[in-house]
Queue: 3 jobs
Job 1
Amino acid sequence: MFYYIFSDLNEHSILDNLKSRYGRGLIYTYTGSILVAVNPYKMFNIYGLDMVKRYEGKPLGELPPHLFAIGSVSYTKMIKDNENQVLIISGESGAGKTESTKLVMQYLAAVNRSGNNLITEQILEANPLLESFGNAKTIRNDNSSRFGKYIEVFFKNGAIVGAKTAEYLLEKSRIVTQAPEERNYHVFYEMLEELSDEQKAKYGLQTAPKYFYLNQGGSALIRGRDDADNYRKLTAAMDILNFERQEQETIVKILASVLHIGNVYFKVVQENNHDRAELGSDAEIKWVAHLLDLSEDWLKQALTSKVTEARGDRFYTPYNLDQALDARDAVAKALYCRMFSWLVERINMIICRAEREKSTSLAVLDIFGFEDFHFNSFEQLCINYANETLQFFFNQHIFRLEQKEYSKEKIRWEHIEFKDNQPTIDLVATKPAGILHILDDESNFPQATDNSFLEKCHFHHSGNELYDKPRMSDPEFYVVHYAGKIKYNVQHFLEKNKDTLRSDVIELMCESKNQILSQMFKDHRDRLITKTLSKTTGRYVTVKPRTTTVAASFNESLLSLIDTMSRCNPFFVRCIKPNAQKAPMTFEDIVVLDQLRYTGMLETIRIRKMGYPVRIKFPHFIERYRCLMKGEPIRSNQVPWDVCKVILQSQGPEFKDEYQIGATKVFMKEAFESRLDTAAGAIKRAAAVRLQTMVRTFLVRNRHQKLRSAVTRLQRMVRMWKTRRDFRTVRNGIVLAQAQFRMFSQRRRYLKTRENLKHRLEEHRLHRRKQEVQAKMEKERRGNMAMGCVTSSECNAAMI
Ligand SMILES: Nc1ncnc2c1ncn2[C@@H]1O[C@H](COP(=O)(O)OP(=O)(O)OP(=O)(O)O)[C@@H](O)[C@H]1O
């Protein structure tokens, strides 16, 4: 049995199918080869080793839809075709991407042919580690990944030999601010829960509510989450991943320093008619300087004044309160972000072995979905730009699949035009005149403001139909994305875009006496400085780069990601969040429909609709529409292709552009399919009514044999006519006829039995009579013998 759920895609059929399957506890559904996973918010027992074994090596569609089926097909394809594979898992926050990624990784760990369990274990252990540092509680998800990740697992001869993780856009603002009901990254709370009083004293730590960077969201606890236990798991993972003691110690010191920095406060002092920020207390600074092995004075200076250099001289400009608070947060963000990237690099060093050469890879992309909030800012523009680019990739894939299918089926293709979302990508992109490009230009121009950026966007794009200005003079612009029209507010765009690690903070950390910490920042600094070969001297010269902006570096990593993925064979998993309350097994149509749009499912329909979205295999087509041949028999020498042609042509020549007959399937437009269904339905219903009348007539006339054949024909009709509407009419008729037929048969049986009984009774009576006669004759004979005369029968015998 094959489990391709939708042969024809349309918005409502997808929604209805998902809903009815979800209601039956079936959370996975295929639409074509795309797996849709609707979050059940309740663990089903469907991920055990028995399921791994069940799905291992099975082609897609042979077993019910499942994440393991995708894992199995991609793994088998990678080995068989020696081709890299990628699973693109997308969906909005809380839809189930991270869980799906973990399940796929577990599946791969279970089926791979590696004799080395350590590397597999290390790869799996990297997950809780990154989760502690990169996940946090948000109002949408208690364990929300605040970064995108691309995990490549490398295989040789079917065995795992290593893995590599790339991270995208860690949410920096969370380190210093959290919305109500939200938390900072898990690791802070886990550390404070698990460290003993003695250890806490060593780092000057207290409880979570004492820290400004941890107490802004309210409750520090998450129901059902054991922070202390997670910290134990985290340290165990670090041990398995060979993190040295000193490295682990430095991590705790950095985390503690971030918390101390957050508690630094400032006083405002008047100086020469200007406000100047002055440190409120020394205690936190002393702890940070101690833990990070930094000069206390340099740290104070970095928090209270800006350093500029001119002709070898250094000038210090004091910060006002806002600038000082920004500087404080910048140090905290720089420390945490750099540590996070270093952790990823460090994990990669351990699990990404040299054996990677000549290996094939199976990658999983777990990336934030399309976002449309009440207030959309720079982060949403980047995320939606990434989604727009991924959608382009997805469309191209679907388009390629379509093209492949059409050419395999020898369908004429040239009339079908596919529109893609490239114009929107160009509008947002970092290409000349793209919104992000304008932003980058402005970011390198000291006098620029958010408004000047907006004006330039309006100037360049007001004629573009994918761009819109607000009616009022609000600081906003609209972009028409594939998933809808989104309003962006440009407030803080420039500042957010420039929010790469500040060079003064990098310099400060490079000076640390803690080798691990200073190396972390030196590596980063070296990467920023590009070395170019000077043409005149032939020597390498150090070139100070153009300020790297968030948009530019994000765009660069996005393009490299797309480039890597385009060399892989992709599979798509679309995760859907069925309700906003995280309620188990609750399906809300509006919520799901929105996501079908955001995950690009409806876009797929659009692409398919431009061609021939309905495809039906010949035998199925003939079975379904045979009645349109109007009684004309199928000759034994008639091939299915010809039969389909006769059926299709029955609708008249004016519909010839509505369908094409391929090598094994009939391709149709949706409207033409409806037409065929309507025509076939009418014929079938009329035939059903005729047959039902016949059944009734035969029943009345007691024509048993004819009745039986009419019921058989009705039954066959039901089996053959699979369209639901007709099925119901005929089925009702047949149920009635069958009931009548049963009654009729019972009566016949009853009559027959009664007849038999009568007959047997008669026989019995006759037999008894015979015996009586014989007994009488015997008696008579004996009496006569005694008297010396013969009986009448003996007399008869003598005569013969
Ligand atoms: N297959 C599943 N079975 C049972 N529960 C699930 C499944 N997938 C997800 N969940 C539940 O949904 C929650 C959110 O899932 P997950 O963290 O994977 O979402 P996400 O899409 O990665 O969100 P974010 O983008 O915020 O990281 C999980 O903590 C879990 O409770």
Job 2
Amino acid sequence: MKKLWNTICEHIVAPTQLSREQLFGLLTPFGRSVHMRRHAASVIIARVQLISALFAVLVPLWAVVDLLVFEGYTAFWLVLLRLGAAGVFAALAWPREVSASRPYAQAMLMLLIMLLVPPMFYLASLQIIDQALLSDGQRLVAQLYTFMPTIVLGGLAIFPLTALEILLFSVPVIGVAMVGMVSGGADLALDQHGAALWFMLMMMGVSMFSGMSQSHYMESLVYRAMTDPLTGAYTRRSGTEALELMYRLSSMSGKPLAVAFFDLDNFKSINDRHGHDAGDQALCTLVERLRQTLRRGDVLVRWGGEEFLAILPEMPAEQMPTFLGRLRRAGFGDRPDGRPLTASIGVAESLADGALDWQTLVELADQRMYQAKRGGRDRAVLPGAVEVPLAQPA
Ligand SMILES: Nc1nc2c(ncn2[C@@H]2O[C@H](COP(=O)(O)OP(=O)(O)OP(=O)(O)O)[C@@H](O)[C@H]2O)c(=O)[nH]1
């Protein structure tokens, strides 16, 4: 089994130049950062609105065809159905703010509503159109409606979704199509419906690949725009956005949010004695070490030159000693002369410090970092002014 997994990684994953984590992030939405989810949400909402606006106009226009091809009650109900569908599309297209607290849930809901309109239209049209009495022209138009679920599956391809999300959106659409196939009392027979079902599965597969490649493209663009080119940590601007959002989420859920301010000790002397490149290298090593220590949902921000801010959601003050223990074990790398690089750290936590906004939280962490400097460097100051030395015991 391990051999098979290694072969898959070596021959299938490696050539795509994706790490296992990145691949996991394209298969399921669980590994996406708050920032990435926010960006994906705004792209999805913008596309739902654009397509809905288009359909809000096109769907009622097609009523002309219904009126020309069908007669009496059939035409009347079809036109009514169209107006209903156009109403839903117009409501989706209506300008709206992207939710500040739950943008991704909003995007998923809007997408689901938009995707369900065509299959529902198809199911309702089956009830309205009496298949037994159709002329050739009417049958042709009625058959066009049976393609609606398939069109929806293909339409999923334009959204930056993960494979799992496409699968979850496709299941109800394929379900509706199957209900349609058997709605006249017919059995679900492979010789009659197999080709249509196969085609739908193929469309789903194509959408999965397209959605994943769009997600990957979007993520690499967003990553480039949000991160510092030297260290790969978030820039101060994107870090502030993440902090604002994470603070809002934590105060809504009543969970703690901690921030840790890191300032390297005597960093200037590295530049002065060993050159700027050695200084740059030390910063990269620091970020690499911090990454090893931080959890998946934590965010690391380059706040200024050699100052970094770690945003630590759901980390109560009581867990700080464990966090510092992990930091101490990973270390911050070495100076060019071989001595360990040290840092002064100030930590603040929203509940323990009673901080009413994220700015206060950062200010407290900053003040504590200076307190750690004044106290002799290579130490952390925690909420309650608790000073914890970081030096490895000799
Ligand atoms: N190599 C390199 N140096 C940087 C970068 N950004 C800021 N610096 C340098 O970081 C140094 C920070 O110096 P100080 O603020 O005096 O701090 P320090 O020497 O670490 O002293 P303490 O903080 O008091 O322990 C300055 O010399 C900056 O030029 C960078 O991207 N690369």
Job 3
Amino acid sequence: MAAASPEESIMSKEKEANINVYVRIRPLSREEIIAGDKCAVTALKDGKTAQVVEEGGGYKLTTRTFKFDGCLGPTADQDQVMERLKVVKMLDSVLEGYSSTIMACGQTGSGKTYTMSGRDEGVHKGNNLGKMERKEDGLIARSVSYLFESINKRTSNSDQEKIYTMRASYYEVYNEQVNDLLRLDAPPRDVKWSSKDGFYVDNLLLVDCETLDDVFAVLEEGSRNRKVGSHEMNKDSSRSHCIMTLHVDSNFWIGDCAPITRYGRMLFVDLAGSERLKKSKSSGEMLRETGNINRSLFTLGKVISALSEGKRGDGMVPYRESLLTKLMMESLGGNSLALMIACVSPSSSALDETLSTLHYGTCAKHIINAPSVNMDARDKVVLELELEIVRLKKENSLLRSKLGLADEEEIATTVTIPPYCASAKRNKSPRKTSTESNCKTSGLAKADLGNPSLEKQLKGLEKLFAKDGNFYQDSSYQSVNLPRTDRSLMEDFERHTNRSIPSVHTSGAFSDTTWSNVDYERAERAKSEELWINSMRNSINNNGLLGVYRGLGGSKCKGQQHISRKNRISVDHLSARTRKAQSPCKYGVRGDDDFQGSITVNENAFQRLLNLSTPVGDKDDDFYQY
Ligand SMILES: Nc1ncnc2c1ncn2[C@@H]1O[C@H](COP(=O)(O)OP(=O)(O)OP(=O)(O)O)[C@@H](O)[C@H]1O
């Protein structure tokens, strides 16, 4: 099966998808080791299961296992996290116009910020020469690098013109208000709702990012400004939920239409950690923060739980109970691809929180999202129609090839219908002249050379002609504007043979000599079309005439044959429409009404026509004799 185009793959991806949940177990911290904590959580070899060993009363041990899409142990480094979590797949989707969300949850000090941002608020230190610690880069820095690389590849390797633009925003939800981390002087931002975007933060600063460094600058600024506090469990504890969003718009062009825009979005959500006041010993302002953090996480838990039970929509799921859940609506049960990283400490002393996080993750696994490309309704319709056209063209071409017909596209691009190709009722109305031949045939020569089946081309031509209303309606026909001498020659010829030349299209190569070289006398004497054709062929060879293919009718006549059986196809259809009131015809003699028209082809095609294997002039042939 042929590979689907990016546009096709977009549409085909529009199906429901579960939230992917991974667990990351960090190493025991120095403090935990000093405190003599044991390692109670391990990642099993299957790479998916987290095993928790709980000490009961006495020597009783309880082992519990939790299975996820993946489970990474304390030795997994940042590289492996990026790879095992298949982040690249999500980023590719963003470039195709999807929303993707990566969220890190877990108790305080469990490694959420380390996973998302790396060590020391791990913004990649690309700007600070000498401080490059790429190994420690978190998912955000790695993702941004990948996006830029991928955009470069996509724009330079693609035939299709595409333009990507990236903008970044960074905000935090702190004490039930939204702060723009890129504009500390600004008052808290409002969260609004629109039918198109759902809940969104109003008036957020979106920074245009043309380079990697632009995004890193945003990350540094945001990380510096987020609320951090110090407590017993984490000296750099995030006191807010932070959401960094990359808006990746892609414009691409189909045909001559206005560009189609897709609005990809990548959300990195670093949730504040839940904490037990008894352990964190928070007090004062921090106590209030803790209350708000725990409250919003509790609401998040309710939302996750409702969604995992199959409840859907704003009414059934308590999104509106906190700012965080409002802003996560698209990521949880919405149209975003989503990945949750449940971060846990392996310490036996943190077991309650770890179990709570693992339950959280287990619930989240059941949430089903319906990812879809973000684009304007008009663009969606245009794209759908374009895809439909592509599909129909493929189907048409398959059917045509099965029927042995020419590829319509090939013909359409190579031939235009000459307006003077009219049905001929010759001698009944004066021949009209047109000033210029506008029959384009050069493309046909190419097609003809490459494609041995002239029959196919003629069939296609005939179809094109059939579409031209004039062909049937015009009772006269037009010829090209020949010089007077030529015309008189032609008239001579017509008088002499009692036949008209129904339609002759010429190119610049046509000249007086061309016609004077045609041996009419000989053709008439020969009473054989074959000989006439030969004389024409000589003429063509000698003089470079583009060529004439005469459409000879006779489908309703007994013993019908034309120049050959093969090219008859191109004529029959026409004749059925144009020859209603014809007189009966006899072999070798044809009434005027029998003429069906002509198709001009270039020299190559014409010569090919003359060389068709089926012999001309069969006994039963019903042809013109010039
Ligand atoms: N996988 C890991 N490998 C090495 N060190 C880690 C790992 N995960 C976390 N750490 C270290 O543990 C400490 C706490 O991690 P971090 O600040 O990321 O926790 P957190 O979950 O974001 O906490 P909070 O919710 O309080 O902000 C940090 O010093 C961090 O460097």
